[in-house]
Write a structure and sequence with these properties.
Layout (H helix, E strand, L loop, with lengths): L1 H17 L7 E9 L29 H12 L2 E8 L8 H9 L5 E6 L8 H5 L3 E5 L2 H6 L1 H18 L2 E8 L9 H9 L3 E6 L10 H13 L25 E4 L4 E3 L9 E4 L5 H12 L13 H11 L10
Parallel strand pairs: 1-2, 1-7, 2-3, 3-4, 4-5, 5-6
Antiparallel strand pairs: 8-9
Helix pairs in contact: 2-3
The structure holds S-adenosylmethionine (SAM).
Protein backbone atom coordinates (compact mmCIF):
# COMPACT_ATOMS: atom_id res chain seq x y z
CA UNK A 1 0.00 0.00 0.00
CA UNK A 2 2.79 2.38 1.01
CA UNK A 3 4.58 1.50 -2.23
CA UNK A 4 1.48 2.20 -4.30
CA UNK A 5 1.07 5.55 -2.59
CA UNK A 6 4.67 6.43 -3.41
CA UNK A 7 4.37 5.34 -7.03
CA UNK A 8 1.25 7.50 -7.36
CA UNK A 9 3.12 10.49 -5.93
CA UNK A 10 6.07 10.02 -8.24
CA UNK A 11 3.72 9.92 -11.23
CA UNK A 12 2.02 13.05 -9.98
CA UNK A 13 5.41 14.75 -9.91
CA UNK A 14 6.16 13.39 -13.35
CA UNK A 15 3.06 15.03 -14.75
CA UNK A 16 4.18 18.34 -13.21
CA UNK A 17 7.60 18.13 -14.81
CA UNK A 18 6.12 17.41 -18.18
CA UNK A 19 3.78 20.35 -17.92
CA UNK A 20 6.62 22.64 -16.87
CA UNK A 21 5.67 23.06 -13.18
CA UNK A 22 7.75 22.44 -10.07
CA UNK A 23 7.53 19.08 -8.32
CA UNK A 24 5.78 18.62 -4.96
CA UNK A 25 8.60 16.52 -3.62
CA UNK A 26 12.23 15.90 -4.37
CA UNK A 27 13.15 12.31 -5.18
CA UNK A 28 15.91 12.37 -2.60
CA UNK A 29 17.34 14.75 -0.01
CA UNK A 30 20.96 14.39 1.04
CA UNK A 31 21.48 15.44 4.67
CA UNK A 32 25.00 15.81 6.09
CA UNK A 33 24.36 14.56 9.61
CA UNK A 34 28.01 14.99 10.63
CA UNK A 35 31.20 16.37 9.13
CA UNK A 36 33.31 14.02 11.22
CA UNK A 37 35.05 11.17 9.40
CA UNK A 38 37.26 8.23 10.30
CA UNK A 39 39.01 8.29 6.88
CA UNK A 40 40.95 11.02 5.08
CA UNK A 41 40.65 10.09 1.40
CA UNK A 42 43.24 12.04 -0.56
CA UNK A 43 40.77 13.51 -3.05
CA UNK A 44 38.05 14.42 -0.53
CA UNK A 45 36.54 17.86 -1.05
CA UNK A 46 35.83 18.30 2.67
CA UNK A 47 39.53 18.63 3.44
CA UNK A 48 40.33 20.56 0.26
CA UNK A 49 37.68 23.18 -0.31
CA UNK A 50 37.99 25.87 2.39
CA UNK A 51 35.33 28.00 0.72
CA UNK A 52 32.57 25.39 0.77
CA UNK A 53 33.88 23.61 3.91
CA UNK A 54 35.68 26.26 6.00
CA UNK A 55 35.63 24.02 9.07
CA UNK A 56 36.72 20.88 7.22
CA UNK A 57 36.21 17.60 9.06
CA UNK A 58 34.93 18.34 12.52
CA UNK A 59 32.78 16.64 15.12
CA UNK A 60 30.42 19.54 15.89
CA UNK A 61 26.89 19.11 14.62
CA UNK A 62 23.20 19.52 15.32
CA UNK A 63 21.69 18.05 18.49
CA UNK A 64 19.40 15.03 18.20
CA UNK A 65 16.32 17.24 18.61
CA UNK A 66 17.49 19.60 15.89
CA UNK A 67 18.25 16.66 13.60
CA UNK A 68 14.73 15.32 14.17
CA UNK A 69 13.21 18.71 13.42
CA UNK A 70 15.15 18.98 10.17
CA UNK A 71 14.27 15.42 9.14
CA UNK A 72 10.58 16.00 9.80
CA UNK A 73 10.72 19.07 7.52
CA UNK A 74 12.54 17.05 4.84
CA UNK A 75 9.93 14.27 5.05
CA UNK A 76 7.25 16.66 3.81
CA UNK A 77 9.28 17.52 0.71
CA UNK A 78 11.21 14.42 -0.28
CA UNK A 79 10.41 10.82 -1.22
CA UNK A 80 13.75 9.51 0.06
CA UNK A 81 16.20 10.57 2.76
CA UNK A 82 19.90 9.91 2.25
CA UNK A 83 22.20 10.47 5.23
CA UNK A 84 25.78 11.36 4.49
CA UNK A 85 28.48 13.75 5.64
CA UNK A 86 31.18 13.06 6.91
CA UNK A 87 30.69 9.49 7.96
CA UNK A 88 27.08 9.01 9.17
CA UNK A 89 27.96 5.91 11.20
CA UNK A 90 30.15 8.05 13.48
CA UNK A 91 27.06 9.60 15.03
CA UNK A 92 26.45 7.78 18.29
CA UNK A 93 22.72 8.52 18.01
CA UNK A 94 22.36 7.21 14.44
CA UNK A 95 20.00 4.43 15.54
CA UNK A 96 17.69 6.96 17.18
CA UNK A 97 17.86 9.18 14.08
CA UNK A 98 16.92 6.27 11.82
CA UNK A 99 14.14 5.07 14.13
CA UNK A 100 12.69 8.56 14.01
CA UNK A 101 13.02 8.81 10.22
CA UNK A 102 11.40 5.37 9.88
CA UNK A 103 8.33 6.65 11.74
CA UNK A 104 7.85 9.34 9.06
CA UNK A 105 6.56 9.13 5.53
CA UNK A 106 9.75 8.35 3.56
CA UNK A 107 9.59 5.94 0.65
CA UNK A 108 13.24 5.01 1.18
CA UNK A 109 15.89 5.52 3.87
CA UNK A 110 19.42 5.56 2.54
CA UNK A 111 22.97 6.24 3.55
CA UNK A 112 26.23 7.15 1.82
CA UNK A 113 29.03 5.57 3.82
CA UNK A 114 32.60 4.38 3.65
CA UNK A 115 31.27 1.02 4.89
CA UNK A 116 33.90 0.51 7.59
CA UNK A 117 31.46 0.68 10.51
CA UNK A 118 28.48 -1.27 9.15
CA UNK A 119 28.87 -4.48 11.14
CA UNK A 120 29.36 -2.58 14.42
CA UNK A 121 26.07 -0.79 13.73
CA UNK A 122 23.98 -3.64 12.49
CA UNK A 123 20.77 -2.43 14.20
CA UNK A 124 21.00 0.83 12.26
CA UNK A 125 21.79 -1.04 9.03
CA UNK A 126 18.61 -3.10 9.52
CA UNK A 127 16.52 0.08 9.27
CA UNK A 128 18.00 1.16 5.94
CA UNK A 129 16.49 0.44 2.52
CA UNK A 130 19.58 1.29 0.49
CA UNK A 131 23.26 1.39 1.47
CA UNK A 132 25.55 3.30 -0.88
CA UNK A 133 29.16 2.41 -0.14
CA UNK A 134 31.96 4.58 -1.49
CA UNK A 135 34.91 2.56 -2.69
CA UNK A 136 37.56 3.29 -5.29
CA UNK A 137 41.25 2.83 -6.24
CA UNK A 138 42.33 5.72 -3.97
CA UNK A 139 40.66 4.16 -0.92
CA UNK A 140 42.00 0.71 -1.77
CA UNK A 141 45.53 2.13 -1.99
CA UNK A 142 45.25 4.26 1.18
CA UNK A 143 43.27 1.85 3.37
CA UNK A 144 43.70 -1.62 1.85
CA UNK A 145 43.11 -3.61 5.04
CA UNK A 146 39.96 -1.69 5.99
CA UNK A 147 38.65 -1.85 2.43
CA UNK A 148 39.16 -5.63 2.16
CA UNK A 149 37.23 -6.07 5.40
CA UNK A 150 34.53 -3.66 4.18
CA UNK A 151 34.01 -5.76 1.02
CA UNK A 152 33.59 -8.92 3.13
CA UNK A 153 31.14 -7.07 5.39
CA UNK A 154 29.14 -5.84 2.39
CA UNK A 155 28.76 -9.40 1.12
CA UNK A 156 27.76 -10.63 4.55
CA UNK A 157 25.20 -7.84 5.08
CA UNK A 158 23.63 -8.36 1.69
CA UNK A 159 23.31 -12.08 2.31
CA UNK A 160 22.15 -11.88 5.91
CA UNK A 161 19.88 -8.82 5.78
CA UNK A 162 18.96 -8.88 2.07
CA UNK A 163 19.84 -5.21 1.80
CA UNK A 164 20.26 -3.30 -1.41
CA UNK A 165 23.91 -2.23 -1.61
CA UNK A 166 25.36 -0.05 -4.33
CA UNK A 167 28.90 1.23 -4.78
CA UNK A 168 29.90 4.85 -5.48
CA UNK A 169 33.23 4.86 -7.25
CA UNK A 170 35.18 8.11 -7.49
CA UNK A 171 37.81 8.03 -10.21
CA UNK A 172 40.88 10.28 -10.33
CA UNK A 173 42.68 11.23 -13.52
CA UNK A 174 45.75 9.21 -12.53
CA UNK A 175 43.72 6.00 -12.03
CA UNK A 176 44.50 3.50 -14.78
CA UNK A 177 42.07 0.91 -16.06
CA UNK A 178 44.48 -1.73 -14.71
CA UNK A 179 44.10 -0.26 -11.18
CA UNK A 180 40.42 -1.12 -11.41
CA UNK A 181 40.61 -4.79 -12.34
CA UNK A 182 40.17 -6.24 -8.84
CA UNK A 183 37.42 -3.80 -7.99
CA UNK A 184 35.53 -4.43 -11.23
CA UNK A 185 35.89 -8.19 -10.97
CA UNK A 186 34.53 -8.06 -7.44
CA UNK A 187 31.49 -6.04 -8.59
CA UNK A 188 30.84 -8.28 -11.56
CA UNK A 189 31.39 -11.60 -9.77
CA UNK A 190 29.09 -10.62 -6.92
CA UNK A 191 26.52 -8.80 -9.07
CA UNK A 192 26.88 -5.45 -7.39
CA UNK A 193 25.90 -2.26 -9.22
CA UNK A 194 28.19 0.73 -9.30
CA UNK A 195 27.94 4.41 -10.02
CA UNK A 196 31.14 6.03 -11.30
CA UNK A 197 31.97 9.70 -10.88
CA UNK A 198 35.01 11.80 -11.77
CA UNK A 199 36.87 13.59 -9.00
CA UNK A 200 35.97 17.27 -8.87
CA UNK A 201 37.74 20.34 -7.57
CA UNK A 202 35.67 23.07 -5.97
CA UNK A 203 32.53 21.19 -7.06
CA UNK A 204 33.45 21.50 -10.72
CA UNK A 205 34.73 19.37 -13.52
CA UNK A 206 36.72 21.07 -16.25
CA UNK A 207 37.60 18.09 -18.37
CA UNK A 208 35.59 14.93 -18.81
CA UNK A 209 37.70 13.47 -21.61
CA UNK A 210 39.79 11.20 -19.39
CA UNK A 211 36.68 10.11 -17.51
CA UNK A 212 34.78 9.22 -20.67
CA UNK A 213 37.77 7.24 -21.91
CA UNK A 214 38.06 5.12 -18.80
CA UNK A 215 34.28 4.71 -18.67
CA UNK A 216 34.32 3.41 -22.22
CA UNK A 217 36.85 0.72 -21.29
CA UNK A 218 34.79 -0.25 -18.23
CA UNK A 219 31.57 -0.37 -20.25
CA UNK A 220 33.16 -2.50 -22.96
CA UNK A 221 34.48 -5.08 -20.52
CA UNK A 222 32.01 -4.91 -17.63
CA UNK A 223 28.68 -3.87 -19.16
CA UNK A 224 26.62 -5.43 -16.40
CA UNK A 225 27.79 -3.49 -13.39
CA UNK A 226 26.23 -0.15 -14.23
CA UNK A 227 23.51 1.34 -12.15
CA UNK A 228 20.80 2.06 -14.70
CA UNK A 229 21.01 5.77 -13.97
CA UNK A 230 24.43 6.15 -15.45
CA UNK A 231 24.33 7.50 -18.97
CA UNK A 232 26.76 6.51 -21.67
CA UNK A 233 28.76 9.64 -22.30
CA UNK A 234 28.98 12.96 -20.51
CA UNK A 235 30.52 14.96 -23.36
CA UNK A 236 29.09 17.46 -23.94
CA UNK A 237 27.26 17.75 -20.64
CA UNK A 238 23.91 19.25 -21.53
CA UNK A 239 23.14 21.06 -18.30
CA UNK A 240 19.63 21.92 -19.45
CA UNK A 241 18.66 18.32 -18.89
CA UNK A 242 19.21 18.62 -15.16
CA UNK A 243 16.36 19.14 -12.71
CA UNK A 244 17.99 20.35 -9.48
CA UNK A 245 14.80 20.30 -7.44
CA UNK A 246 14.79 16.49 -7.62
CA UNK A 247 17.77 16.13 -5.29
CA UNK A 248 17.98 18.54 -2.39
CA UNK A 249 20.94 19.09 -0.08
CA UNK A 250 20.96 20.01 3.59
CA UNK A 251 24.20 20.98 5.37
CA UNK A 252 25.33 19.75 8.78
CA UNK A 253 24.04 23.04 10.21
CA UNK A 254 20.54 22.28 8.90
CA UNK A 255 20.69 24.77 6.04
CA UNK A 256 19.00 24.11 2.72
CA UNK A 257 21.42 24.62 -0.16
CA UNK A 258 19.99 26.27 -3.29
CA UNK A 259 19.53 24.72 -5.74
CA UNK A 260 21.90 21.78 -5.28
CA UNK A 261 25.13 20.51 -3.74
CA UNK A 262 27.24 22.07 -6.51
CA UNK A 263 26.47 25.49 -5.01
CA UNK A 264 26.98 24.48 -1.40
CA UNK A 265 27.81 28.01 -0.25
CA UNK A 266 24.46 29.31 -1.53
CA UNK A 267 22.28 28.92 1.48
CA UNK A 268 18.54 29.46 1.10
CA UNK A 269 18.03 29.47 4.87
CA UNK A 270 17.75 27.24 7.92
CA UNK A 271 15.36 24.31 8.19
CA UNK A 272 15.41 24.88 11.94
CA UNK A 273 13.33 27.98 11.23
CA UNK A 274 11.48 27.46 7.94
CA UNK A 275 10.28 24.60 5.79
CA UNK A 276 11.65 23.37 2.48
CA UNK A 277 9.00 24.97 0.23
CA UNK A 278 9.48 28.39 1.85
CA UNK A 279 13.26 28.17 1.58
CA UNK A 280 13.12 27.00 -2.01
CA UNK A 281 11.12 30.10 -2.85
CA UNK A 282 13.61 32.30 -1.01
CA UNK A 283 16.53 30.60 -2.74
CA UNK A 284 14.94 31.22 -6.12
CA UNK A 285 14.44 34.90 -5.33
CA UNK A 286 18.04 35.22 -4.16
CA UNK A 287 19.90 33.08 -6.70
CA UNK A 288 17.58 32.73 -9.70
CA UNK A 289 16.21 29.82 -11.69
CA UNK A 290 18.22 26.68 -12.38
CA UNK A 291 19.57 24.98 -14.42
CA UNK A 292 21.37 27.84 -16.12
CA UNK A 293 24.75 28.61 -17.66
CA UNK A 294 26.43 28.40 -14.24
CA UNK A 295 25.76 24.65 -14.33
CA UNK A 296 28.01 24.11 -17.34
CA UNK A 297 30.87 22.55 -15.36
CA UNK A 298 28.65 20.64 -12.96
CA UNK A 299 30.64 18.08 -11.05
CA UNK A 300 27.67 16.23 -9.60
CA UNK A 301 26.94 13.75 -12.33
CA UNK A 302 24.80 11.58 -10.07
CA UNK A 303 22.41 14.47 -9.52
CA UNK A 304 22.54 15.43 -13.17
CA UNK A 305 21.67 11.82 -14.00
CA UNK A 306 18.64 11.90 -11.70
CA UNK A 307 17.22 14.93 -13.54
CA UNK A 308 18.17 13.64 -16.93
CA UNK A 309 16.53 10.26 -16.35
CA UNK A 310 13.39 11.81 -15.01
CA UNK A 311 13.07 14.00 -18.09
CA UNK A 312 14.10 11.33 -20.56
CA UNK A 313 12.96 8.02 -19.05
CA UNK A 314 12.98 6.31 -22.45
CA UNK A 315 16.75 6.70 -22.52
CA UNK A 316 17.21 4.78 -19.26
CA UNK A 317 18.36 1.20 -19.41
CA UNK A 318 16.16 -0.45 -16.79
CA UNK A 319 17.17 -3.94 -17.82
CA UNK A 320 20.75 -4.09 -16.63
CA UNK A 321 19.94 -6.04 -13.51
C1 LIG B 1 32.44 13.00 1.27
S1 LIG B 1 31.85 11.35 1.22
C2 LIG B 1 30.88 11.32 2.70
C3 LIG B 1 30.14 10.04 2.94
C4 LIG B 1 30.93 8.84 3.45
N1 LIG B 1 31.86 9.15 4.48
C5 LIG B 1 31.62 8.14 2.28
O1 LIG B 1 32.82 7.89 2.36
O2 LIG B 1 30.91 7.81 1.33
C6 LIG B 1 30.58 11.37 -0.02
C7 LIG B 1 31.02 11.00 -1.41
O3 LIG B 1 31.76 12.06 -1.97
C8 LIG B 1 32.83 11.50 -2.75
N2 LIG B 1 33.88 12.51 -2.88
C9 LIG B 1 34.67 13.03 -1.94
N3 LIG B 1 35.52 13.95 -2.45
C10 LIG B 1 35.24 14.01 -3.78
C11 LIG B 1 35.76 14.80 -4.85
N4 LIG B 1 36.72 15.70 -4.68
N5 LIG B 1 35.23 14.60 -6.07
C12 LIG B 1 34.24 13.70 -6.27
N6 LIG B 1 33.70 12.96 -5.30
C13 LIG B 1 34.20 13.10 -4.06
C14 LIG B 1 33.23 10.29 -1.96
O4 LIG B 1 33.96 9.36 -2.73
C15 LIG B 1 31.89 9.75 -1.51
O5 LIG B 1 31.34 8.89 -2.48
Amino acid sequence: MKDLKNIARVFNDYSKIWSGREVNKALVTFFEITMNCNLRCEYCYIGQDPVAYPQGFQPKGLSIDEIKLVISKISKSSHALSLYGGEPFLRKDLLEILQFAKSLDFGSLEVVTNGTLLVKNIKSVELLDVINISYDPTRQRQYSEQMNKMLEDALWIRKKLKKSIMFFITLCEEDQFSDLTDLLNFMQNHKFCAFFQPVRTKSMIHDLKWFNEIMKSIKDEYPKIFYFNQIKNYVPLDYNRCLPQLSLSVTYEGNLVYPCQMFRTRIAGSLLESDVAELWKKGKEKYGTFPNKECENCGYLCMWDIGNNFRYPWKVNFFNY
